[in-house]
Amino acid sequence: MTSHAKHGSGGKPVGDVIISVRDLFVGFGDKLVMKGLDLDVYRGEVLGFVGGSGQGKSVLTRAILGLVPTRGGTIRIFGQQRDKLPAPERKALEQRWGVLFQNGALFSGLTVKQNIQMPMRETRDISPRLMDELAMLKIELVGLKPDAADKFPSELSGGMIKRAALARALALDPELVFLDEPTSGLDPIGAAEFDDLIATLQETLGLTVFMVTHDLDSLYSICDRIAALADGKVIAEGPLGTLLASDHPWLRAYFHGVRGGRLAAVIPE
Amino acid sequence: MAAAASNPPDVSPAEGGARLALVGDWTLAASRRLEDKSQQIVDLGKRREFVTIDLSGVSHLDTAGAWLINRARRNLAGERVGVALEHARPEHGIMLEEAAYRDFEAPAPRRVPVVVQLLADLGRAVADGLGEFYRGVSFLGEFMAAMAYVATHPRHFRLTSLVVHMEAIGLRSAPIIILINILVGGIVAQQGIFQLLRFGASSYTVSLIGILVLRELGVLLTSIMIAGRSGSAITAEIGSMKMREEIDALRVMGLDPIEVLIAPRVLALVISLPILTFIADIAALFGGMLVSWGYGGISPAAFLSLLKEAIALHTFLVGVIKAPFMALVIGLIAAMDGLATQGSAESLGRQVTSSVVKSIFMVIVLDGLFAIFFAAIDY
Ligand SMILES: Nc1ncnc2c1ncn2[C@@H]1O[C@H](COP(=O)(O)OP(=O)(O)O)[C@@H](O)[C@H]1O
Ligand SMILES: [Mg+2]
Q: Which residue of B39, B74, B344, B350 to mutate against A (max A Cβ within 10 Å)?
């Protein structure tokens, strides 16, 4: 596979805005997690979303997906405000995205293949033969062995669960995928393969990818743009170079710490 | 993609079928039509030596479309027809490569004669039943060993946990148990008065209520209620802990899940159930008294003096003695079924159902055994 380093081009992102978050407030009890957050994701890009543990990366993802109630602000996806749409249009919108949850969230009572076929079966009219073939294709596409098809989630390793969950997220060839820490819990080789996979899929399917990650290698190799979250706001966004140049203390510690330092050393600024 | 419906996929043959131009959206949304078109490509190209497929008219292509184009290519190759793809956009080219056609060996479903299957199922059910009994006995042993350990090492006794579970199992069940027993006591009284009136013996109603409630109904209703209410909760709690490897986490810390999780719950049941049985007895007698008064005209004072004649302490004890044993059976079955949970949500549901059904059944069987026992010792 090719290398997908696309950082450092510096130019403005092309394509229209596919997710637009404005002045978002989200909280639990008396604790605010998002405090007036703004974020844009452009069509066709891979956006890496970083931030310390517990800063609210998953909460933001869930808020965009409509799983967490917001306290203020607007979220537009494909130009539409999801919570203002009538039910049928909301369903249509939801079929245009795929989600890889942090823990996979595979249906434990279904095999991997049935998990992948679930969205196909429920939302499209597809012949059983094609459904089988497509499910197997997706299984191979995400790098699982064919014999994983008939296994139940409890029989899979952590990495296999991630892959199976990605296959399910891609079942309907979505335009937009949300990946919550896709490479956490994978070995470095597995993580690199996963990155390559996401990049290939992104190129072939023209995907827009919203990726929450801690993985510096992923940020370096496949993200077009990076947004950093701290204190309920996006503190910096742009290509990797912009973030490396930022002097926000957390970003400095993140990129110029022991692990990040190695990365900064190899990237020409 | 969203625009798929407005731009259906199609095949238009030119040069007598040697050249096929694909147009429209080749996407999953039109999958039925795509499959037809894929077949059409094969039909059109079948009797030629070479077919060129022109992809310049394809507006959208997803994995399903690419897969079906490749399926047609493969089928044509099987007919020894050469196929070339032309004017594919670069991203479509990559897609076609990613979705290269391959055979997935479908594992053939094994066919077994019905009779053999039936016999096998029967055998498995019997073996499972025996295994279950064996595991039950061994689990009882493990539990007793854990209790003995706790008894000799009081520091390991989890008092807080015990109190928490006694609240959940005992205190919070009290209202519903009181309500049910008042109703049942009332029903027994009404039936007693109504049926015995025909023999002019309606004053025996009080004996009927007293003996029936104290010896059997109070403890039986309470046990069944607790099996449904608390047994299921215990199975679900322990089962979901098993699913999320929490039980394994305890084990690797050198803690015994039976001692940490199961002992407090079972002990809470064993302590709560006799108390609940006592409460149930009082509630049922009270219900019986109310109905006797309102429906049978037996005044509370008369009811109480008749009751005093009919029952003795041992009538009450027969019921209450059974309660801790019922509790033990309910608790052990619930815990054992919880621990037997496999990885899936479905399995958890199955275990909870089986726990409730089994413990209610065992409660009734045990009650029958006690009835035989008490009759034999003439108590
Ligand atoms: N359902 C919830 N109820 C209360 N607090 C929550 C809930 N979900 C998340 N939080 C809080 O929101 C914050 C952000 O969590 P999360 O988005 O999971 O962090 P991360 O950035 O590591 O993904 C955390 O402080 C967490 O405690
Ligand atoms: Mg998270």
A: B344
Do the bridges between strand A225-230 and strand A46-51 make them parallel or antiparallel, or are there none, so unpaired?
Answer: parallel
Residue identified by tokens 């909301």 is A90
Query: Ligand 2 centre from B278 Cα, in Å?
Result: 51
Q: What are phi and psi of A144, to 5 degrees?
A: -95, 155
Chain A residues close to B106, C-beta within 8 Å: 132
Measure CB to CB from residue B343 to each of A127, A154, A172 and give the nearest one.
A154
The ipTM is 0.76
Residue A124 included in any domain: yes
DSSP assignment of B37-58 equals HHHHHHHHHTTSSEEEEEEEEE
Q: What is the third-level CATH fold of B10-98? A: Transcription Regulator spoIIAA (3.30.750)
Mutate to test the pocket of ligand 1, among A34, A35, A58, A215 (most ligand atoms within 8 A of CB): A58
Domain boundaries, chain B: 10-98, 122-376
pLDDT class for B43, splitting at 50, 70, 90? Answer: confident
| B126-170 residue pLDDT tens | 999 999 889 989 999 999 998 888 888 888 788 888 999 999 999
pTM (whole model) above 0.80: no
Inside any domain, residue A22: no
Instruction: Check: CB of residue B57 under 8 Å from CB of residue B90.
Output: no
Regions in chain A scoring below 50 on pLDDT: 1-12, 269
Domain total of chain A = 1
